[in-house]
TrEMBL record, chain A:
It catalyses: a (3E)-enoyl-CoA = a 4-saturated (2E)-enoyl-CoA; a (3Z)-enoyl-CoA = a 4-saturated (2E)-enoyl-CoA. Pfam families: ECH_1. GO terms for cellular component: peroxisome. It comes from Escallonia herrerae. GO terms for molecular function: delta(3)-delta(2)-enoyl-CoA isomerase activity. This is Delta(3)-Delta(2)-enoyl-CoA isomerase. The keyword Lipid metabolism applies. Belongs to the enoyl-CoA hydratase/isomerase family. One of its GO terms (biological process) is fatty acid beta-oxidation. It is an enzyme of class 5 (isomerase). The keyword Zinc does not apply. Keywords: Lipid metabolism. Pathway: Lipid metabolism; fatty acid beta-oxidation. Its EC number is 5.3.3.8.
TrEMBL record, chain B:
The lineage of its organism: Eukaryota, Viridiplantae, Streptophyta, Embryophyta, Tracheophyta. This is Delta(3)-Delta(2)-enoyl-CoA isomerase. GO terms for molecular function: delta(3)-delta(2)-enoyl-CoA isomerase activity. Its EC number is 5.3.3.8. It is an enzyme of class 5 (isomerase). Pathway: Lipid metabolism; fatty acid beta-oxidation. The keyword Membrane does not apply. One of its GO terms (biological process) is fatty acid beta-oxidation. Belongs to the enoyl-CoA hydratase/isomerase family. It holds the Pfam family ECH_1. GO terms for cellular component: peroxisome.
Length: 249, 242
């Protein structure tokens, strides 16, 4: 589901396979366990490091596995709980994080990318897309909190959430959603590695970095604690029952 | 430590001396005393305040040496005094302008950002949140002030998580500084010009101060507590590098 490799001081976490990397429990568990391994290795290695998250295939991640959930509330809540836990791990991770967005990132997948300190993306294909409005789903409140913490312009929040805009990397850079756009998936990873090395070269203490990131994103951590309400999960599952939702993307 | 002069309707508060103007209790107390004098002098007429400094530094942050001389008590005292000063600036019944004449780092950057307008010389000097580089935790209230004043999350990330050193022009592009001006003297002149323009609007000072407090309510709330120097029950905690 995912691999973790080390290149010098840079860890590269890759979502493997050419599927759309839906955030179902097996993938979420595998990502969290990779982050746990990363923390223990980083603690041992004594020097500063950085994390890059990327993926194989046409998708970075297409969000929650709604097909698997069907209209089962427990399954929806389980995915939400696991994603929130993963996001907490990323926000407290004791090193700089970079998302090298190698394909489409939508809904929960877009959120996953935005949880990284720096977001780089290929410009030759792929969209960032909050699909909820198009699919008829209510946005979880903590998604909105994260979007607002990471995106400064109210006009852009509106475009992203209320217009369900599909943004290419270049548009996303212009709108201040991501850092930079690169020629291809491979180029994006190369640029991410170069950025990672620059950040590692600052010789920050990982513990200090993670603690300061938690201060900057305290609002998101608070929102994660609250999570999805039972009402929200019920409403979502009713909608899914009614629509027999299949991926629109 | 600081002087207060009046030019027409505009007050100019200057941090004197060629040192780093580190925020220790004597300096903070002297600035607060100057602000108290301003409040007592201004009655019905409109005024504005410009804060600037002599030498290469606007303000290089907390006096860490003084803090370490009593690690359990001094950090909390300094933090509490700085928060009172920032509270004074936030409630000051007149527009405030920082004429950043040199380096402003950490708490010194916070001091600059506590003003309504930030003008900065572009020929030298950096804005810099040094905490990440020296292994310190940034207080949540610092971040609250930054978020209230700097619209771009990317800019906040670059300043706090990337510890970027920003000259005036880069800072203006990121929306941290309002105007990048020629040199120190020009920056003060521009600040005086802006101050006079604002005074010309004939705003009621008390209303101005109250409206600013409303706008910065989140910051005022966050300033009640500094988790890097005190526990939840208000008892001091020793500050050191993490």
């Amino acid at each position: 589901m995912c691999t973790l490799e080390k290149r010098g001081n840079i860890y590269i976490l890759t979502l493997t396979g050419t599927d759309d990397h839906r955030l179902n429990p097996p993938l979420l568990d595998s990502l969290q366990s990779a982050l746990r391994r990363l923390r223990s290795e980083a603690a041992g290695c004594g020097g500063p490091c950085a994390l890059i998250t990327t993926a194989h295939g046409n998708y970075f991640s297409n969000g929650y596995d709604l097909d698997w959930a069907g209209s089962n509330e427990d399954r929806l809540l389980l995915m939400s709980t696991k994603l929130r836990s993963l996001v907490k791990d990323l926000i407290s991770l004791p090193m700089p994080t970079i998302a090298a967005v190698s394909g489409h990132a939508s809904a929960g997948g877009f959120i996953l990318a935005l949880c990284h300190d720096y977001v780089l993306m290929r410009k030759d294909r792929g969209y960032l897309y909050m699909s909820e409005l198009d699919v008829g789903l209510v946005l979880p409140a903590w998604f909105a909190t994260l979007l607002r913490c990471k995106i400064g312009s109210p006009a852009v929040w509106r475009d992203v959430v209320m217009m369900a805009e599909k943004m290419t990397a270049e548009v996303a850079v212009q709108k201040g959603v991501i850092n930079s756009a690169h020629g291809s998936a491979a180029e994006t990873v190369r640029a991410a590695v170069a950025l990672g090395e620059q950040l590692v070269g600052r010789k920050w203490e990982g513990h200090v970095y993670g603690e300061n990131r938690k201060v900057v994103f305290a609002g998101v951590l608070d929102a994660l604690g609250v999570g999805d309400s039972v009402e929200h999960v019920n409403a979502t599952s009713r909608l899914l029952k009614a629509k027999n939702v299949v991926s629109r993307f | 430590m600081c002087t207060l002069e009046k030019r027409g309707s505009v007050y100019i508060l200057t941090l004197t001396g060629n040192d780093e103007h580190r925020l220790n209790p004597p300096l903070i107390d002297s600035i607060r005393a100057a602000l108290r004098r301003i409040r007592s002098e201004t009655t019905t007429s409109s005024s504005a305040l410009i804060t600037t400094a002599h030498g290469k530094f606007f303000c290089n942050g907390y006096d860490l040496g003084w803090a370490q001389s009593d690690p359990l008590r001094h950090p909390q005292l300094m933090s509490s005094k700085l928060r009172s000063l920032v509270g004074d600036l936030i409630s000051l019944p007149m527009p405030t302008i920082a004429a950043v004449s040199g380096h402003a780092s950490a708490a010194g950057l916070i001091l600059a950002l506590s003003h309504d307008y930030v003008l900065m010389r572009k020929d030298r000097g950096f804005l810099y949140m040094s905490e990440m580089d020296i292994g310190f935790k940034v207080p949540a209230w610092f971040v609250a002030l930054m978020r209230c004043k700097v619209g771009s999350p990317e800019a906040v990330r670059d300043v706090v998580l990337r510890a970027e050193k920003l000259g005036a022009e880069a800072a203006a592009k990121k929306g941290i500084v309002d105007l990048a001006c020629g040199g120190a003297a020009e920056t003060v002149e521009e600040a005086v010009r802006l101050g006079e323009e604002l005074v010309g609007r004939r705003w009621n000072g008390a209303v101005y101060g109250r409206n600013r407090e409303t706008l910065l309510a989140e910051v005022v709330g966050a300033m009640g507590f500094d988790e890097t120097v005190e526990n939840a029950d208000g008892t001091p905690k020793a500050v050191s590098r993490l």
